[in-house]
Amino acid sequence: MQVTFKTFGCRLNQAETAHYVALFQANNIEVVPFGGQCDICVIHSCSVTQRAESESLRVVRSVKRKNPAACVVLAGCAVESATGEQLKHLGIDLIIPREQKERLVEIILSYLKIARGTSGAAPAPYFTTHRALLKIQDGCDFFCAYCIIPYNRGAPVSRGFNECLDEARAFIDQGFQELVITGCNIACYKDGGRNLPDLLQSIAALPGLGRVRLGSLEPATVELEVARVIAGTPKVCRFLHLPLQSCDDTTLQRMRRRYSTAQIGGVLDEILELVPDIALGSDLITGFPGEDEQAFSNTKRFIKNYAFSNLHVFPYSERRGTAAAEFSGQVDHSLRKERAQELIAIGRAQRNRYASSWLGREVEVLVEKFDSDGNACGWSGEYLPCCISGLKENQRAALPGKTLCFTVACVAEDVLKNKVRFSIPIPIATPSYGLTTTFK
Question: What is the pLDDT of residue 120?
Fold first, then answer.
């Protein structure tokens, strides 16, 4: 019996798929790559945009046409947002709604009359990448005007504090050197009197951890407390992604965001004082209904003032079921794209300048692969791409998934590189959880 997955969308979907994969494996079901023959195909859908939802449903139709005997299962956000008429003719065998998603594997096995394997403690999610995604919560109740996710994911629900720590330990025991904290709105994390900064501090203190990275963090929540943890905890990556969406107060009010630019500016000033070299990322929407030239100029000015080094820019896209889809003042599609390109160019220039600031300094990189020239490639804690040359053939096999430190000798656009040397010491293993090597 074989199962395959097609996962769309965010890190949270990826974390949930990894959980399902581990459960199938525990039940002696083979997990195979997507695209070939299988007995079970799970489409883990996304509906953050209309286009993402449509693509998810298109794949369902395609899978059933190519593999009619397979049990096709639809899970994820499109289950909540797609209409019954949309789903009616897709040939779906099982639809897993939000309230049953924790039982997805159990439901599928029961439907196919497959006996479950031995019960016991749930296995840790299974990842084939070199970083593990730690899901700490689900749901959001912010109800921003452009966003469908609160309707699809429901109200915030947090996992237990100790449950999160236990899963983090399991990942460390498997050899993962980087954990990424993820959720629908991780700023909402609470378990008793403990919140996200408390959890971050405790994860960073776990023996054997290489480093821990935060996913996207909603502004005007706990980002200042998180920055204090970053400032005092070397194992927390010095990177904060704050999805501002706009930097114009009128637009923010129309978006139903919970902050002003003055408020966020004050917080950013404090964060930069605490962690001067921190990398800042953000999501921005261009052409939101009512965004005029002055509003767009305000966004550009704010982004330049705080030198964001990692911008994700999206032209506004109408999403059925959201308040903003019915707003007046819709901006022409070509202007939305034009503004997006302008912000992308600003972001690229600022990213290159930030990367150049690391020249001559030491950075840590998680090695993820080797390129065709034999260079070790990965990402720094500040989310800058790194390329390490001069490694010998017999050094390479042990390095993927491990962290290395090196001194930046040159910067190509945003890529940090070391000086080419022909004799680099063979890495010396530290305790079994990994190895750290310094290259000059």
Answer: 67
Q: Where among 339, 356, 373 does a domain terminate?
A: 356
What is the reported pLDDT for 427?
A: 38
Please choose, from the candidates 366, 372, 373, 374, the residue with its C-alpha nearest in 3D space to the C-alpha of residue 416. 366
pLDDT, tens digit, 9 for 90 and up, residues 303-329: 999 999 999 999 999 999 999 999 999
Q: Packing angle between helix 223-232 and helix 261-274, nearest 10 degrees?
A: 10
Q: Alpha-carbon distance 116 to 106, whole Å?
A: 8
What DSSP string describes 277-301?
T-EEEEEEEES-TT--HHHHHHHHH
Reported as half-sphere exposure (CB side, CA atoms, 13 A), residue 136 has a value of 29
How far, in whole angstroms, is CA 335 from its chain's centroid?
Answer: 28
Count structural domains, the chain. 3
Model confidence over 141-180: pLDDT tens digits?
999 999 999 999 999 999 999 999 999 999 999 999 999 9
Residue 371 lies in a domain: yes
Residue the block writes with tokens 């404090």: 270
Rg of the Cα atoms in the chain: 23
Domain that holds residue 49: 2-111
Which pLDDT score, from 0 to 100, does residue 167 have? 97
Q: Which residues of the chain have pLDDT under 50?
A: 420-440
Tell me the one-letter amino acid at 295: A
Q: What is the reported pTM?
A: 0.92
Integer CA distances (angstroms), 320 to 44, 51, 202, 325, 431, in order: 20, 11, 41, 6, 53
Distance CA 47, CA 147 (A): 10
Q: Is the same domain home to 106 and 32? A: yes
Residue 116, number of CB atoms within 10 A of its CB: 13
The answer to whether the CB of 183 falls within 8 A of the CB of 157 is no
| Size (the chain), residues | 440
Does 125 map to a domain? Answer: no
